[in-house]
Amino acid sequence: xxxxxxxEPKQRTHVVRIFPNVASCLRLIRALGVEKRELWQxxxxxxxxxxxxxxxxETLKVTA
Length: 64
Hints:
Layout: H1 2-16, H2 22-42, H3 49-63
Helix pairs in contact: 1-2
């Protein structure tokens, strides 16, 4: 996943080829980072910590 994140700006900057200044290049790279972050936040997690906490509470109630 990290390799893909590093590859994406290379591909996008290759398409643009020439930037008028450094700030425009940084804006593109930041926009890509924000886009990836939003995508990752929307995906499901491998382990839902809320379910783990509920299970722990149930175990504590049973043993008490």
